[in-house]
Predict the 3D structure of the following.
Amino acid sequence: MGGARLPGLASRSQKPFYPLAPAPAARREALSTRQEKMAIDGNLYAAFEERFRAAGEAAAFTIPGASDVSYADLADDVARMANALVALGIKPGDRVLAQVEKSLANVHLYLATLKTGAVFNTLNTAYTTAELGYFIGDAEPALIVVPSEKLARVEPIAAERKIAAIATMEADGSGSLTDLAQRQSADHATVARASDDLAALLYTSGTTGRSKGAMITHRNLASNAEVLHACWGFEAGDVLLHALPIFHTHGLFVAMNTAFLNTSRVIWLPKFDIEAVMRLMPEATVMMGVPTFYTRLLGHPAFGADHCARMRLVISGSAPLLAETHAAFEARTGHRILERYGMTEAGMITSNPYRGGDRVAGTVGYALPGISVRAATQEGAAVAPGEVGVLEVKGPNVFKGYWRNPEKTQEEFRPDGYFITGDLATIAGDGRVTIVGRAKDLIITGGFNVYPKEIEEELNSLPGIGESAVVGVPHPDFGEGVVAILTPQPGMTAPGEAEILAALSCRLARFKLPKRVFVAKELPRNAMGKVQKAELRSQFAKTFSE
Ligand code: AMP
C-alpha cells in the first residue's frame, strides 16, 4: 500500500466508466454454498407475516425480566400498530419519522410502517432537537414519534411544517402510540407494494455536510436479508443475540430482517450491557456486533469459551475489526469472528465466508452473491488487482438514490449503475476485498498517498499501544502532515514519541511516518463504534501551525 499518488484519488471528479471485470469463480463458490432461492417480491412484511403466522407460538423475543413474546403475538401487535397508523391518517408512501429508543414497540412501529406501505424514517437518538428540525423539514413526515420529553420542542416545528400527527413513545415502549395500538383490532390486510417502492428512509451519518436521506426499497431489504440468511447458514433453532441500536442499518435490517426470515428467537437487550451480554450469550447461536463489543468482551477477565458454548457464528461489522481483536477472540473462545462490510446506502456488500473458505482478519471477504464490486480511481478507471481504489458496488441491495437530491444521486452513481461507496479498498485476484479507509480520510503528504490503516496496523502491533487513529492535518510544507493519536494498552504506559518513531522507521517509508504522536485516554467514537476522524482532524488541525 502507499507509494506514489494514485491519479484522481485526491479529487472527487467523475465520469468515464469501464467494463465490468468477470467475477472470479472462487469467491462465488465460497459464498453460495447454501443459497436456496426465496425470491421475495413486493411488500417485505407480507413475507415476514406469512412466516410469523406459520411460526405461531414459537418465541420471537426473549427480553430479560419479561415473558417471551411469540411470533403469533408479534404478528398481532404489528397488525394493531398498523391499524393505529391508519387511524392517524398514514397512507402508502407517507414517511413515519421516529426518534425513539430501542423497544419492542419500536419494532412494531418499524414492521407496521412496512405493512401499511409507508416509509420508516428512524433517526439516531443522539440528534438534538435542532437537528431533528432539519430532518422533519427534509423528510416531511405524516407522523412524528418522539418521547414525551421532546414533545414541547417538536410541536412548534411540526406546526410550522403543518404536520398534524405527533405521537409519543417512551424508552420502555409505552406512550400515546402504543395506547392507540392497543385499542385496535389485530385484523389488517398488508398493503401491496412494488419491490421498487420505498420501505425506509435512513439518513447517512453526514460527517461532511448535511446528512442525506438514503431511499431504501423493499427489494433492497428483501434481497439482502435473503442473501445473508443463505450465506450465513441460518437454520432452525438459531437464536440471535441482539444488543445493537435499531436506528442504524446493522441492528435494524441486517440483524432483525435475517432473524425474521428465519423466525429465530431474538434475545433482546436495550443496549450493550456487558454483564447482560455475558449472561445471555451462552443461549445464543448467532451474535452480531460492532468491533467495540468484542474488545469490551475481551477486556472482561471472566469472558471465555463457555460464553460461546452454543455459538455457531460471531459477526462483526460497521467499523474495522483489528486483526489483534480477531486473533485474541479466537485464542480466548475458539471462534473466528466473521467480518463483513456494508453501508446504509447498500446494506451488506461483502462478507468473509461462513463455510468453504477462510475468514481472513483485516479483510471483509467477497462480494455477496448477486452483488458486484470493483475498485477504481475517482475518474472511474479500473485499478489493477491488489491496488487501492475507490470501491464501487452494483446489485439489488443498492439504494434508489438520495431523497429529493437528484444531483447528489447523479454524482454518486456511474452511468452503468455502480454506486461509488467512498471507501478505499483493494480487491485481490480472487475477489477478496480489504477496506483501507474512507477516501476522505486518505492523507496526501508531499504528493504521496498515505493510507491511515497501514500506519494504524503498525502502531497497534507495538507493545503498550491499545488503539490508534492516524489523520492528516494541514501542514505548511507538505500540504498535509501525518498525525497519530493513540491510547495506551490497559494497565500499561504507552511508549514515548521518539521510541514509537524509531520502531516504525524500520517498517515504514519515511513519508508515511507520523510527524507527531499524541496519547489520548480514548478515541472519539460514534454509537456504531466508528472512530470520528473528522473530530480528530479538527482537534489537531493546528498541530503544524502553532
Ligand atoms: P454506515 O452507513 O453508518 O453503515 O457506515 C458505512 C461505513 O462504515 C462504510 O462505508 C465503511 O466506511 C464502514 N464500514 C462498515 N463495515 C466495515 C468493515 N467491516 N470494515 C471497515 N469499515 C467498515
